[in-house]
Amino acid sequence: MLRAYLDNNASSPVAPEVLEAMLPALRGALGNASSIHQRGQAAKAAIEQARAEAAELLGAQPTEIVFTSGGTESDNLGIRGVLAEWAESHPGAPLPHLITSRIEHHAVLNVFEDLERAGHPVTWLRVSPGGRVDPAEVSAALRPDTALVSVMMANNETGVLQPIAEIGALTRAAKVRFHVDAVQALGKVPVNPGALHCDLLSLSGHKIHAPAGIGALYVRRGVRLHPMILGGRHERDRRAGSENVPGIVGLGAAAKLARESGELEHARLAVLRDRLEAAVLERVPDCGVVGAGEPRVPNTSNMYFDGIEAEALVIALDLHGFCVSTGAACTSGAVEPSHVLLAMGYTRQRARGCVRFSFGRQNHQGEVDALMETLPPLIERQRKVAAGAPGNKKLARSA
């Protein structure tokens, strides 16, 4: 009984046009792109067509696109690949300084934590209560030994957009490499690496209605990148391994779809998000929008509901046919508040009451209206249960 899938930031369903484009490769009409026979050359041509589509969406050159297994690999390749190249060109030098923010996706956050443990000095940028990095703090953090800055374009939990172009201008002037995780921005707002002044930019297929298991890394022309996976000479010696031809074709088709729908789709998603937020704020007391007033991607709304546990609300909504998600991650059976919300200054209690709604191209107004028939009574019921629990008399009034 699926009434609405509203968790597109986690993974978006494969678009029919994308699936149709992938079918020849899935049915065996394409071979190994390294083979010289007909099917191999057909696979190579399909890959290069997809590369051209991805490049056109970004306003980049096809040679600047490296296909990967997804956003996580793209982040790792961009960060570690640049640093490995730096180490080769600076033999014997102390480990360079790095800069990132406290609200990055774990595909970046965990890499920087690992690099810090290995001895790299790392500056962890704070964010405002609205969830934004201040470019002035980036400028103040830059040092003569800074080798890399990495800041995401759109936060996966809140949808808040970062001032990437301003940060990129600072890093370009300082001759410091700049990596951008644009996984949650692509397909929702214009993403142009040239305008953003970035050297590396990560993207993922299953966030833009392509299948999971495929992604890409934009590598600006002239930026040297040490491969993290060694083997054959695939992807211009930047990422070894036989290409995932069906996935790459799917990513190319999704990129074309995103480019052709463009601003019209962005505006349509914003209408759905705004309709949901207005209805919730009108009908549900003691709630609010995370990042309200800040620039956000049009499809994402993270809302806090005081007096509830988001995990319980997500489960209750699922039982009613609505797929949404919480900013909290479950680790060893213990629910921990989102590191993003804590970095924004939210209390642990309020952070545990945040639910994320994220729209995709398959969603429509009727689903928002159906959700609003279900959501307010569920919240009211859960608040009554929480307020009546021993030791929780003040829960409904907590901030």
Overall description:
It is globular, with a radius of gyration of 22 Å. The C terminus is likely disordered. The protein starts with a strand and ends in an 11-residue tail after the last helix. 48% of the residues are buried. Strand 3, helix 4 and strand 4 form a beta-alpha-beta unit. The chain has 399 residues and is of the alpha/beta class. Helices cover 42% and strands 15% of the residues. A 7-stranded mixed β-sheet has the order 2-8-7-6-5-3-4, with helices on both faces. It has a 4-stranded antiparallel β-sheet with strand order 9-10-15-12, with helices on one face. It has 2 domains: 139 residues, Aspartate Aminotransferase, domain 1, CATH 3.90.1150; 243 residues, 3-Layer(aba) Sandwich (Aspartate Aminotransferase, domain 2), CATH 3.40.640.10. The chain has 12 helices and 15 strands.
Keywords:
399 residues, alpha/beta, Aspartate Aminotransferase, domain 1, Aspartate Aminotransferase, domain 2, 2 domains, seven-stranded mixed sheet, four-stranded antiparallel sheet, 42% helix, disordered C terminus
